[in-house]
Amino acid sequence: MSARPKKHSLTLRGHRTSVSLEDEFWLAFTRIAEARGMARNELAAEIDEARGAERGLASAIRVFVLRELTID
User: Fold this and answer.
1) 18, 10 in Cβ contact below 8 A?
2) What tens digit of pLDDT does each residue of 20-50 get?
3) For 16, how many CA atoms within 13 A lie in the half-sphere containing its CB?
């Protein structure tokens, strides 16, 4: 896996966009979407709606993945 972020394409509510994520985050994001029975685009749209203007989509996805995988 590459240590550098890679661009990944998403479609949010009919609009194409891309996010730059490290392979590990993209893989974890994909697995979380699959575990929820959702498409990546669908999960990304939910994260996008909840993220607020001060955080970029890629950062919001990373935080989402960390929260999902963190055991308190």
Assistant:
1) yes
2) 999 999 999 999 999 999 999 999 999 999 9
3) 3
Count Cβ atoms below 10 Å from residue 28 Cβ, excluding itself: 19
Q: Give the pLDDT of residue 49.
A: 93
Tokens of 11: 């479609």
Both tokens of 10, joined, read 């998403």
CA-CA-CA-CA torsion sign (50, 54, 57, 59): negative
Nearest to 8 by CA among 18, 16, 17: 18
For 68, the enclosing helix (H) or strand (E) is: helix 57-69
Q: How far is CA 71 from CA 28, 38, 64, 68, in A?
A: 15, 22, 13, 8
